[in-house]
Amino acid sequence: MDKYSVIGKLYSAYINAPEDYIPEELNKADDELMEKMTAAINAEKQLDFDNVITDYTHLIEKRGFIAGFKMAMKFMEEMKD
What residue numbers bound the domain in which 19 lies? Predict the structure, then answer.
């Protein structure tokens, strides 16, 4: 069993219902940044960049989710003492 399998399942639940977890102002900032990136990329290359950017942002978001979860668990453990 992968040591991150439980966190991976939690991440899947999170990613499939982000409106339950992500503040609206972050969604708005995300949309604005995506518009800026799209405007900055040549139309002929947008599809190529879209795929790479999507893969990269997914990796970064998952990494942040796992790190945040680990931090929360560490804080909870410290609070027990």
Answer: 5-80
